[in-house]
Specification:
The complex is a heterodimer of chains A (267) and B (294).
Chain A: H1 2-16, E1 20-30, E2 35-45, E3 49-53, H2 60-67, E4 78-85, E5 88-89, H3 97-102, E6 104-107, H4 118-128, H5 134-147, H6 151-154, H7 167-180, E7 185-189, H8 197-210, E8 215-220, H9 223-229, E9 232-237, E10 240-246, H10 247-252, H11 257-266
Helix pairs in contact in A: 4-5, 4-7, 5-7
Chain B: H1 2-36, H2 38-43, H3 46-51, E1 55-56, E2 61-62, H4 65-96, H5 99-114, H6 117-139, H7 149-173, H8 177-185, H9 190-219, H10 222-227, H11 245-252, H12 262-292
Antiparallel strand pairs in B: 1-2
Classes of the chains: A alpha/beta (267), B mainly alpha (294).
Bound molecules: adenosine-5'-diphosphate (ADP) and magnesium ion (MG).
Adenosine-5'-diphosphate (ADP) binds next to helix 2 of chain A.
């Protein structure tokens, strides 16, 4: 028992030698009837892919929503603790919520393209940021569509409805739309769960490339995917962080029975 | 097995039958009206029937223009009042109000929708007519007896609110929460999200709610008839009395006077109403088709 705790602490030290971008401490989330997140403490390293792993219902989505204050939409949730980005506790911020959200790009479980054209889906965030120059917008639309390898597929129908794209293309569009606001962090909630294997691969490849410029926090319950992508793994179970650390350590040398079991079943 | 297949066949036949009845019904009604009013449109020029203002059945003059205009006036004014009201109320109830408020509003809306139109009519006579005569008309330096297009429109707008509001609430209920989250996560404010995302996503549904509201308001008879004055004239302003098509038919049908072609004139009035409603529907269909293309 003792050794387990020591190794866990060592891991934390190892991580803090990297550049941290987000610091979560003592985060608790309660609903009316349940304690959804229990005392979450983690540091997210910059320019890495952090994977939140765990069975469904363990609170991964909720944790992600805390990070960009989408929890505000659910009046039944009560949060305490801190989430620090750039030295600022975003949970207590009252006025600059839109700016906080623009530090993060969100990719959801299923793509939800905005009810407008492909072009406008990307331009939307830019316009919200105050970009007015049409040429700049056009340039950025192209840049971000290229960034997600969608440009060649849609360049001839930028003005047509985003709804008509295939679901895999829609998901890449949603990624591009998030990138267009030039976030520091990409939050991805099971981004491939609604996609076919090929589209999933494309998204995964994008993520590996994007980590040079962005920090990625990705939720998944697919163990293989976590192994392919993760630099850093956070394993959650019933609202608690059970283990976290470098991907190699976690996957080769899991400490807890719960994670061992999860990995055995996941294979 | 054979029995199940038989029932299967039978049930699908039934459905086809019901559907064809449903499809043939408007056709049959339209055809009936055309035939029943033939005495009129065979003996009078169609142009003068529609555009003439001269209504004197005893001299065989049947100009429907005052009735057509009254109908359109009262409906359009009613909708101008109720459309933005319903939209804003729906936005408020689904996006800003606490959830209990929507829960309280639902039965209230249902009750409003269930009140018989004659009750709205009585309320109109007791409240709206004096309101128009004593307060609203003087405010605009007008004289009015109160029995007017405006009174009809006010009563009609109140009547159409529960109907339209219910449909728009349903439209907003069907917009996925995640779409809102996507917009907010891009840095939009709540209002920007409503304006650029929810309203666009719901545009088709909102327009069809308006279209249905329009058709229903156009055909509403009793309540409007009780407050609009029923004077055959082309109303010069909303403070004038009018005489909408449904009122014309309802007031006079059955009093089979000895005037030849009078009852086929009333049939022709119904036919006009029918045609106007179809035209409105086609227009709204077109708008919906256009808005779906986005
Ligand atoms: N707004 C909410 N109100 C009440 N309970 C919630 C709410 N959101 C999530 N939960 C509960 O919190 C738990 C974690 O949910 P979630 O974060 O979606 O899990 P995961 O994404 O890991 O599958 C679930 O048991 C869920 O029912
Ligand atoms: Mg989830």
């Amino acid at each position: 028992m003792k050794t387990a705790i020591v190794t866990a602490e060592k891991r934390v030290e190892h991580i803090t030698t990297e550049v941290p971008i987000m610091n979560i401490s003592n985060l608790n989330v309660y609903s009316k009837s349940a304690h959804i997140l229990k005392n979450i403490n983690i540091t997210i390293p910059k320019n890495k892919i952090t994977v939140l792993l765990g069975p469904s219902g363990c609170g991964k989505t909720t944790l992600l929503k805390c990070m960009n204050r989408l929890t505000d939409l659910y009046s039944e949730l009560r949060l305490d603790g801190t989430i620090e980005i750039d030295g600022q506790n975003i949970l207590t911020e009252r006025n600059r919520i839109t700016e906080i959200r623009q530090k993060m790009g969100l990719v959801m479980q299923r793509p939800y393209p905005l009810p407008m054209s492909i072009y406008d889906n990307i331009a939307y965030g830019l316009k919200l940021k105050g970009v007015r120059d049409k040429n700049v917008i056009a340039e950025k639309v192209e840049k971000h569509l290229r960034e997600v390898a969608l440009w060649d597929e849609v360049k001839d129908r930028l003005k047509s409805s985003a709804q008509r794209l295939s679901i895999g293309q829609q998901q890449r569009l949603c990624l591009a739309r998030g990138l267009a606001v030039e976030p520091e962090i990409i939050l991805a909630d099971e981004p491939t769960s609604a996609l076919d294997p090929i589209s999933s691969r494309v998204i995964e490849e994008q993520f590996s490339k994007l980590k040079d410029d962005y920090t990625i926090i990705m939720v998944t319950h697919i163990l293989r995917q976590a192994k392919r992508l993760a630099d850093y793994v956070v394993f959650m179970y019933y609202g608690e962080i059970i283990e976290h650390g470098n991907a190699a350590d976690i996957f080769e040398n899991p400490q807890t029975d719960i994670l061992k079991e999860y990995m055995r079943v996941g294979h | 097995m054979t029995k199940r297949l038989f029932i299967d066949k039978l049930s699908s036949r039934w459905m086809v039958l019901c559907l064809s009845v449903l499809l043939l019904l408007p056709l049959a009604i339209g055809l009936g009206l055309v035939i029943k009013s033939s005495d009129l449109w065979l003996t009078h020029a169609l142009g003068s029937l529609i555009f003439s203002q001269d209504w004197s059945p005893s001299e065989s003059q049947f100009g429907f223009w005052p009735f057509i205009l009254s109908s359109l006036w009262v409906t359009v004014v009613a909708l101008i009042i109720s459309m933005p009201l319903c939209l804003l109320a729906a936005i408020f109830l689904t996006q800003f109000a606490p959830t209990w408020m929507l829960k309280v509003m639902r039965p209230v809306i249902d009750i409003l929708a269930g009140i018989p139109s004659v009750v709205y009519g009585v309320w109109g006579v007791l409240v709206i007519v004096p309101l128009v005569a004593d307060i609203i008309a003087p405010m605009f330096h007008n004289e009015s007896l109160g029995y007017s297009i405006l009174a009809g429109a006010l009563v009609l707008s109140v009547m159409s609110i529960p109907y339209i509001l219910n449909m728009i609430l349903e439209v907003f209920r069907q917009v996925p929460v995640e779409l809102g989250e996507a917009s907010l996560s891009l840095g939009a404010t709540k209002w920007e999200t409503i304006k650029y995302v929810f309203l666009r996503k719901g545009a088709t549904g909102i327009i069809s709610a308006y279209g249905l509201g329009f058709s229903k308001a156009l055909g509403e008879t009793i309540a409007v008839m009780m407050v609009i004055g029923n004077v055959v004239q082309v109303p010069a302003s909303v403070f004038d009395a009018g005489y909408p098509l449904p009122a014309l038919v309802a007031n006079n049908y059955g009093e089979m006077m000895s005037i030849p072609t009078y009852d086929s004139a009333l049939m022709f009035g119904s036919l006009l109403l029918f045609i106007i409603i179809i035209t409105i529907n086609v227009i709204f269909r077109y708008i919906i088709y256009k808005s779906e293309a986005i």
